[in-house]
Design brief:
Bound molecules: flavin-adenine dinucleotide
Strand content: 25-35%
Number of helices: 2
Number of strands: 9
Helix content: 10-25%
Largest sheet: 5 strands, mixed
Strand order of the largest sheet: 4-5-6-8-7
Radius of gyration: 15 Å
């Protein structure tokens, strides 16, 4: 589970999903973060003539989705807590995103909905750091 869809979150989503992790990225505004507002980024690796922040964000989202990343936006995460074996995110609309480590070799995401609540039970292969990833370049 990745909180924030700036360059850090998008990169984490692509790398995680490309390694076979079932990945959910939650962004409160729009993917791209601060970089998404830049008219020209000249120093991003692989783009020798630069590109706009919006283009960078669009490309990264396409790449992430190609690897199966689920992008939840606009959704704000208001709380993160660990209740072993769960990692639990609370969203501003009251929804709960919950990750459970059940199986170290196979990932799966289960989505259950009821009025006002959507519950994602996310079972992932255990990475070296089992905590939810949080990416944010500014205070939340
Ligand atoms: C106008 C401008 C031009 C820039 N140009 C360049 C440049 O040319 N080269 C360069 O190297 N750097 C540039 N930067 C800096 C670069 O954009 C940042 O270093 C980069 O965006 C940081 O990425 P990040 O993913 O760590 O954080 P951010 O870009 O801040 O992304 C964090 C994301 O997390 C989301 N978020 C935060 N809290 C929550 C929450 N509770 N729930 C859900 N989502 C949340 C935010 O909405 C945001 O999208 C520029 C910045 C600006 C503003």
């Amino acid at each position: 589970m990745i909180v924030g869809g700036g360059p850090a979150g998008l990169a984490a989503a692509v790398y995680g999903a490309s390694e076979g992790l079932r990945t959910v990225m939650i962004e409160r505004e729009a993917p791209g973060g601060q970089a998404g507002t830049s008219s020209r980024i000249e120093n991003y690796l692989g783009f020798p003539v630069g590109l706009s922040g919006a283009d960078l964000a669009r490309r990264a989202v396409v790449q992430a989705k190609r690897f199966g990343v689920e992008v939840l936006t606009p959704q704000e995460v208001t709380a993160i807590r660990a209740e072993d074996p769960y990692r639990i995110l609370t969203l501003a609309d009251g929804s709960i995103v919950r990750r459970i480590v059940e199986n170290r070799h196979q990932g799966s995401v289960h989505v259950r909905s009821r009025p006002g609540h959507t519950v994602f039970s996310v079972c992932l292969p255990v990475p070296s750091n089992p905590a939810a990833a949080v990416s944010s370049g500014r205070p939340t």
